Amino acid sequence: MKICQVEKTLVSTNRIKEMGHRPLLVVKEKNGARSVAVDAIGCVAGDWVIAVSGSASRAAAGSKDYPSDLTIVGIIDNWSEE
Amino acid sequence: MKICQVEKTLVSTNRIKEMGHRPLLVVKEKNGARSVAVDAIGCVAGDWVIAVSGSASRAAAGSKDYPSDLTIVGIIDNWSEE
Amino acid sequence: MKICQVEKTLVSTNRIKEMGHRPLLVVKEKNGARSVAVDAIGCVAGDWVIAVSGSASRAAAGSKDYPSDLTIVGIIDNWSEE
Amino acid sequence: MKICQVEKTLVSTNRIKEMGHRPLLVVKEKNGARSVAVDAIGCVAGDWVIAVSGSASRAAAGSKDYPSDLTIVGIIDNWSEE
Amino acid sequence: MKICQVEKTLVSTNRIKEMGHRPLLVVKEKNGARSVAVDAIGCVAGDWVIAVSGSASRAAAGSKDYPSDLTIVGIIDNWSEE
Q1: What CATH code is carried by the domain that includes residue C56?
Q2: Which domain range does residue E33 map to?
Q3: Which residue among D14, D35, D54 places its CB closest to the CB of A1?
Q4: pLDDT (tens digit, 9 = 90+) per residue, A29-71?
Q5: Which SS3 state, helix, strand or coil, does residue A59 take?
Q6: Is the Cβ of C80 closer than 8 Å to some Cβ of chain E?
């Protein structure tokens, strides 16, 4: 799983109906790369989180049919980015 | 999901029949890497979009049998590439 | 999908039987990275092509049991690599 | 499979229930990239291990429904990182 | 599929039982990155080989339940690494 920091909410009004109204978050990896993740846990900007990719991210988003390839599955208790 | 900007339509007359006539778009990530994505939402050059990869991209393209590995699933309302 | 240029045919006499006699091609991405792709469309050295990766590449190669992770699914009509 | 060194245990109290109480470890690849892996073998900090990614990592974590994309499946007997 | 050179056998006595006794090999890509692959063809150190990744690598390793994400499926007849 990837270690990412939540940056902000992503607003996408025009999306395919299968995505529903699940919150989408912009997350940033240590190397600076930004991705969009589905939030399955309830986190806020600044949180360091664990995000699962690949086929596991669909079920983690709530349904095997959910069109996700990156889902936040946990908040890290303490993370000091050295 | 990846954050990409739509660059242009890709013309590929000679393609496998399973791809049908779905529009294919050239998208560009912030790091400059170009990929080809199936458009499931209806977007135009210049749009910043969310694209889902992996097995989720097939269903997002309309059918689990569609041969996609990258499908545009939403248009980002506002994106300022800093 | 990836944008690649076909470089040459790859000869591999000793391969697992599930691969059959499908032609294998060496393809090159813009960044110089080389991969091996199954040709599902019929292309020649020099062609710029679209190649699908991941689980979609198996069905695109003709069968869900075909052991491919990269399959050429279309030839790009015009591609000027700037 | 990836070759990684186990760095430490990751504490994530707030995680989706599907993750259960399986131990999560921070692993580091030779290039310095850190990921989080599920431990299916029982290893300790400093061990060099083999970690499987993708859909195979779910079954390796104990169940096809486990939300993992990286699971440690073996400890390397001797590894000298040259 | 990836083009890799076989470097050596990897010894991992302590592995999950699902891996069985299949030989594991350390392979090296042109960019120097090392991975571990399951050998489905019978190759020796120095061979240039084709390795399939992702879900296709499981069936190529002999069973859809085998926990592989990289399996060697062919030996390249002639490869001059320019």
Answers
A1: 2.40.50.220
A2: 2-75
A3: D35
A4: 999 999 999 999 999 999 999 999 999 999 999 888 999 999 9
A5: helix
A6: no
